Amino acid sequence: LPASTRARLEFAGLPEGASVRSCNGFDSRLQRGIGAPVVTAESRRMSVAWPVTGDAADSWAIERRVDDGEWQPFETRSADADHVLRVVDTRVTPGHSYAYRTGWSDEYGNYASPVATSQPVSPPGFAFEGVTPNPSTGVFSARIEIPEAGSVQLDVLDVAGRVIASQKRWLAAGRYTEPLAHRGAVAPGVYTVRMTYRGLVSWSRVVVLR
């Protein structure tokens, strides 16, 4: 008996440049789909990019979840001309986890994207994390962190308070390990290392062995 069947077709793993087309109008190049996301996390911004197939003008409803909370509507947008669905979230706070997903529905069912999850990067602060190695045999460095670009001065003082080594550098925001002494430059003993940055001062001690 004559009959007809309606079904949704999906093709995955086709060779580069290959497509599937039928005499009834099906074209796999127009098949709607979404791939694995690429997530970029910054201190105050999360960016997610999903590669999509099908009509770039299709609308995608993006949802967001904070930590273990409920999924909430975030925004609805279309993919860019390069068939990448991009989402930028500036309402994020370090210390929390953020997840994003999207999907679509048709007469055959509901389809969900891979979930993108990440945490904002904590911005650098002001810290003198100490001297390494400690004790030292005469070669040591200071581990420091600054929140904004600025001039950093590091001084090595002996027990009498005399500066026996000093350096001053302009550094961008971030964490650094700054060399302070080379072998033979500092005699065995106990020393104080002073860090000065924008009027802030922090101290650490280092022991130099023979």
Summarize the structure.
The protein has no helices and 17 strands. By secondary structure, the protein is mainly β.
Report on the structure:
- This protein is mainly β and 210 residues long.
- The strands form 5 sheets. Strands 1, 2, 3 and 6 form a 4-stranded antiparallel beta sheet that branches. A 4-stranded antiparallel beta sheet has the order 5-4-7-10, with no helix packed on it.
What order do the helices and strands follow? EEEEEEEEEEEEEEEEE
Chain-averaged pLDDT: 87
The total beta strand count reads 17
> Ranges with pLDDT <50 over ≥5 residues?
none
The portion of residues assigned to helices is under 10%
Distance between the termini: 98 Å
Shape: elongated
Helix-strand category: mainly beta
Into which percentage range does the β-strand content fall?
over 45%
Largest sheet: 4 strands, antiparallel
DSSP helix count?
A: 0
Radius of gyration: 29 Å
